[in-house]
Amino acid sequence: MKYSVIALFFISFSIAGFAQTNQIGFDKSPMDISYLPKDYPLLKMDGKSKDLPIARIIYSRPQKKGREIFGELIQYNEVWRLGANEATEIEFFKNVKIAGKTIAKGRYSLFCIPRENKWTLIINKDNYSWGNFNYDTKKDLVRIDCKIEKTAEITEALTIYFESIKSGANIVIMWDNDKASFPFSW
User: How far apart, in whole angstroms, are the C-alpha atoms of residue 88 and residue 57?
Assistant: First the structure.
């Protein structure tokens, strides 16, 4: 009886250990969050900010991995989810102005139409889309174009962040050797 209990104990732990190694795999593109102001969570924890942030972006970061990105992996002139997996989300914690249009505080999806010399950033009301498979132009709030800068260094993982400027901030998007900056104010 004693040996049966011990054997059952080891079998149970062996099965549990085996089950843990066969879990469903994680997404290959890790998620990230960018805040405006930069490092907002740290400022909040240190008591240096009592207010809500101005904005944040939640997105998945696909990797270049030696691939040709724009024009091949991401097709020119087609709507792109601006990341991997879920559609990229932007949340404004106060009303903002983009391309002369007021966008009410709230949560939205970001999409992009990349072209060789310019990109079009799209802010869309659909918050529950995976990728751009159900993208609906009728839910677009605003579209803004910007010219692309070519960078000297390659950005391996898609990177999105906020850059403060005198009149507000830019949403900066970098991947491969492309850099786009989209201004907004509040």
Answer: 7
